[in-house]
Amino acid sequence: MLLASFAGTAFAGTASQMDGAIDDLIGIRYKYGGTTTSGFDCSGFTSYVFDQFGIELPRTSGSQATIGDKVAKSDLRAGDLVFFNTSGKGISHVGIYVGDGKFAHSSSSKGVIVSELESSYYSERYVTARRALSEAQYQKYATPAK
């Protein structure tokens, strides 16, 4: 499992390819509709990370919540997409689960960061999770190199 820390890089220990891709984006500012390293919104961030591995995601968080397989919160693994209702109008935010109870996302107030899934803000707004990576993609991109 991935371990996030907040000193230096976002990931400690042996990192996966996905960890490296996310780590390179930590601190990039939030930009509504943003899909590039000059600024990301939440779904632009997830799409950009997955695109680094040749995996295309739909553009919006609501659309991303319809792909792959539904995953129970207790069964999350690195690379799963996690979805939240931050607007009061259904799914409006998405991030990438990185393990150890944490997820990476583009926060409208802080840009690309790693947050605690069980923080009071996100635990109250959690809706669902989807597994967009196949088993082979998970093994290749989301598990630490051996």
From TrEMBL:
Residues 12-133 form the NlpC/P60 domain. GO terms for biological process: proteolysis. The keyword Protease applies. Signal peptide: none annotated. PROSITE patterns: NLPC_P60. Pfam families: NLPC_P60. It comes from the Bacteria. Keywords: Hydrolase, Protease, Thiol protease. GO terms for molecular function: cysteine-type peptidase activity. The keyword Magnesium does not apply. Belongs to the peptidase C40 family. This is C40 family peptidase. It comes from Paenibacillus sabuli.
